[in-house]
Amino acid sequence: MLKYLRPVLIILLVLVVDQSLKFWVKLHMQMQSEISITNWFRLYFIENEGMAFGMKWGGDAGKLLLTLFRIIAVVFFSYWLIQLLNKKTHWGLITCVSLIIAGAMGNIIDSIIYGVIFSESYSGGSIAQLFPPDGGYGALLHGKVVDMLYFPIIKGVLPQWIPIWGGEYFVFFSPIFNVADFSISTGVIALLVFQKKFFKKNTGETDESKSETISDEGNKETTDDVGSVSN
């Protein structure tokens, strides 16, 4: 069971941080309100209907399909994670898969229950309540994903000589996201960058077994050499 401890801890840590921050933002900030942490890091509260980084797709039907897709993806990646653990795969790969599962689960929680347990958040209006007397703002599986991490690292007007966008106001990095999105992105990017290292042909042998095999072969060669000299 110890082999499952690390991925379980990774998933739980991401979920606790992600949901704790989302609950705090939902219960303490108005929609589109902002808290400046530094000049380049802010908490900016928005909600989105579906995909990561505030993207949307297909209205209510698209949101429902996206939630179901996330659930299927979590089931698939969880099955893959178990297979990787049983094969004693590289821990980097296991960590990446764990981060992807944790991020997907974090946003699934928003989509499944937030519409039921929270009241609506308004811009310039009242702050949301947890378990409001009149019920939540939406149905099961139709909750909105809470986003708040905003990193406007570079801001300014683009030079006029740049085609199409010249003279327009520019912000980098403009997407607003959450800890779950960051966890998924980190897992996927690391998976792509280190794929050659992670997906080396697995012979099923651990480093210790390989060392023992090499040692046994060396002893065998030495014994053969001694035997040939004796003869």
Characterise the protein shown here.
The chain is an alpha+beta fold and 231 residues long. The protein has one domain (2-150, 177-225). Helices cover 53% and strands 11% of the residues. The protein has six helices and six strands, in the order αββααββββααα. The chain has helices at 5-28, 59-86, 91-117, 179-193, 195-198, 207-230, and strands spanning 34-36, 42-48, 145-150, 154-157, 169-172, 176-177. Strands 1-2-3-6 form a four-stranded antiparallel sheet. Helix 1 (5-28) packs parallel to helix 3 (91-117), helix 2 packs antiparallel against helix 3 and helix 3 (91-117) packs antiparallel against helix 4 (179-193). The longest helix has 28 residues, at 59-86. The radius of gyration is 25 Å and the shape is globular. The protein starts with a helix and ends with a helix. The model is unreliable at 202-213 (pLDDT under 50).
